[in-house]
Known about the structure:
By secondary structure, the chain is of the alpha/beta class. It has helices at 2-28, 36-42, 57-70, 83-91, 106-113, 147-155, 164-169, 190-202, 218-221, 230-239, 250-255, 275-283, 300-303, 333-347, 365-377, and strands at 46-52, 74-81, 97-100, 119-134, 144-145, 181-185, 225-228, 244-249, 262-264, 270-271, 315-323.
Amino acid sequence: MKKYLTIFLALLMIVPIISLAGCQGTTQGQEKPATAGEEKTANKVIVIRTTGATFPKYQIQKWIEDYEKINPNVKIEYEGGGSGYGQETFLKGLTDIGRTDPPVKESMWKKFLETGDQPLQFPEIVGAVVVTYNVPEIGHKTLKLDGDTLAEIFLGKIEYWDDPRIKALNPDLKLPHKKIIVIHRSDASGTTAIFTTYLSLASKEWPKNLVGKLINWPVDKEGRGIGEKGNPGVVAALMKTPYSIAYTELSYAIENNLPVAALKNKAGNFVKPTDETIKAAVSGVKAYIPDPTEGYKENLKQMLNAPGKNSYPIVAFTHFLVWENKNGKHYSPEKAKAIKEFIRWVLTEGQKPEHLAPGYVGLPEDVAKIGLKAVNMIKE
């Protein structure tokens, strides 16, 4: 028995020596490999979630693609859903960056403040809302429309494509005696808010109670209205519905090779949306942008139907919504830093032509500086 006990004690003394030798060998040789946990920390991917407006969809996708190429440790997830959805998910903390086309109203701004954090709103890009159509007899020929005629079409008061009011604006087009099918958004949409606000400015016929992100379209009661979710839904419906008309963002028309109408601007000229006509409109409205901490003070009406003989009339900013992050309320230090770096890139490098998607125009430098001021306010 004593013999076995002696052997056992000897073995106990040998094990620590072998272990010590193993540790010394690791120290003297190459570095000890990182554990799985250490590797995860070293290669940690920061996920930024952004939700809301579909108005800037193609531009957001372009930015994400370009940014992730040079920042592989950042993953940006984009979900559309419309401006109303973007504001709601931002309020509930379900998204890191909200996207909204029309500026947030004061009532919603107060709800943001009730979270105990400071919301920041500022422009990210310039886009245009266009009127597009599917009329086989016209094809890609340019249809001319003024504010009153457009309003009466979307109110359902003009029923046929060969209505005298449309013919008077387009004497050179062969307009068919076919009923007009009006396609519009069915969800809470910034594109709708922009379009209906423009109609209220361009036509006395447009009722004031039909302005906003979500409205009851009178043409639906006529049996000639179709509601679809998101700009993609509107475009898909238009493409498969002959004799239809719709409003959407310019980039969707470009992406799907759709015709766009020339609209009568404030100066009385019929203008199509191009880089030049969009920039002309922006130059006349950029003075109306408020401080990022008071985003609700931005008045959409001041941004539309801009003065200038070459200005396209339905031009608007689409906006970022982020938190100042007081006391780390909404973001971890790592996420706050990643958000700041991404937005700073968007407002500088991201505004250059090589990072812009077709149909969008970069911010004027003095407008971009408003957003850069907000970025510096985000606390890590």
